[in-house]
Prior knowledge:
Elements: H1 10-23, H2 27-34, H3 39-48, H4 53-56, H5 72-114
Amino acid sequence: MIPIRKHYSEEDKLSLLRSYYQSGMSKRSFCHHHGICGITLLNRWLQKYDYLSEQLSLPSEPASTAMPNRSKEEYKEENAQLKKRIKELEKALSFSKLETEARDLLITRAEEYFNIPIRKKSGAK
């Protein structure tokens, strides 16, 4: 399925950038939350409208906490997604290790059965 490219007007871009500056969200979370196709697009807008960054963002205030303005639910959701991704990667890694072991065993058995060297010698040219 080919993703549909959305066209953003200048007003939309500036409004989204203002929201981004005020949200305190990560670029990835902000893009996901607002349906922006990717971080690269947001980065292009940030570069293009860099000269307006002071006007778009909130006036600086002393930070009461070191954490951005994100709710506990957002942190829990992101944490759950990261844990799920870790499990998927661990499963893929273990499957890859099993494939490698099976291939090595197959080569070893073929070398013994046919009495020919299959593996490449390390010093061969």
